[in-house]
């Protein structure tokens, strides 16, 4: 993609002008958006699992059964790990990295759910509120990956009750890569290590407060003690 952007930069025939400074800014947005969102989602996933160790046990049982303990998880393994996928979906439901989706603009007067929305109104979709709506989700404040097992609800913008990446033409353009990165990272972090709380902390002591902003990271960074689960040779660089 970067090669294509550089090829068209400074093209006088473009309807929307693009120069090399624009290419640099666009690339920086892609990198910043992808790294922070993936890191925040992964950290929330691990925090929720450390709060409920039975989920870790269930996840590692699936990993040991499907992957074994002689190798790491690969990207092409993800489709065979339904519980890992469910864990990621549940994190994205409860802790969407972007609480408010990219704004829309009403192109015409419209009425939605009894509300009159005039043409030109800026519309914000509250993904965080949708993910915690008790009329949609049973026990919405509880972290329960099992709710997605056997269900067709996905994060790709087709199911409006779960919209971590948005939907339609303004869906996050990097969602296929971002989703795979998060799924593979979470799978390998759970497969490779046993996660424990430090200093005799209990699950009740784990701070789960959020910082509200463009993203919703943890207020207190996650601190954990890790123990290897796999043969030592797999950890060598």
Automatic annotation (TrEMBL):
Origin superkingdom: Eukaryota
Residues annotated to bind heme: 172
Molecular function, one GO term: heme binding
Names of required cofactors: heme
CDD domains hit by this protein: CYP71_clan
Protein name: Cytochrome P450
Gene Ontology process terms (BP): secondary metabolite biosynthetic process
Higher taxonomy: Eukaryota, Viridiplantae, Streptophyta, Embryophyta, Tracheophyta
UniProt cross-references to PROSITE patterns, sorted A to Z: CYTOCHROME_P450
Key words, A-Z: Heme, Iron, Metal-binding, Monooxygenase, Oxidoreductase
Pfam families: p450
Family assignment from sequence similarity: Belongs to the cytochrome P450 family.
């Amino acid at each position: 993609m970067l090669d294509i952007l550089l090829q068209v930069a400074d093209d006088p025939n473009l309807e929307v002008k693009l120069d090399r400074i624009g290419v640099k800014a666009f690339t920086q947005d892609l990198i910043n958006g992808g790294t922070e969102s993936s890191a925040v989602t992964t950290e929330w996933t691990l925090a929720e699992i450390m709060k409920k160790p039975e989920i870790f046990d269930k996840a590692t049982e699936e990993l040991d059964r499907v992957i074994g303990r002689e190798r790491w998880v690969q990207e092409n393994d993800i489709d065979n790990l339904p519980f890992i996928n469910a864990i990621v979906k549940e994190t994205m439901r409860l802790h969407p990295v972007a609480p408010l989706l990219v704004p829309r603009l009403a192109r015409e007067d419209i009425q939605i759910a009894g509300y009159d929305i005039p043409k030109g109104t800026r519309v914000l979709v509250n993904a965080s509120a949708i993910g915690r709506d008790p009329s949609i989700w049973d026990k919405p404040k509880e972290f329960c990956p099992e709710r997605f097992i056997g269900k067709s609800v996905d994060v790709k913008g087709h199911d409006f009750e779960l919209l971590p990446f948005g939907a339609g033409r303004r869906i996050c353009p990097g969602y296929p890569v971002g989703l795979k990165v998060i799924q593979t990272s979470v799978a390998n972090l759970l497969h490779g290590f046993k996660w424990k709380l430090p200093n005799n902390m209990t699950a009740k002591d784990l701070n789960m407060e959020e910082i509200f902003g463009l993203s919703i990271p943890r207020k207190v960074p996650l601190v954990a003690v890790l123990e290897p689960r796999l043969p030592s040779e797999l950890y060598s660089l």
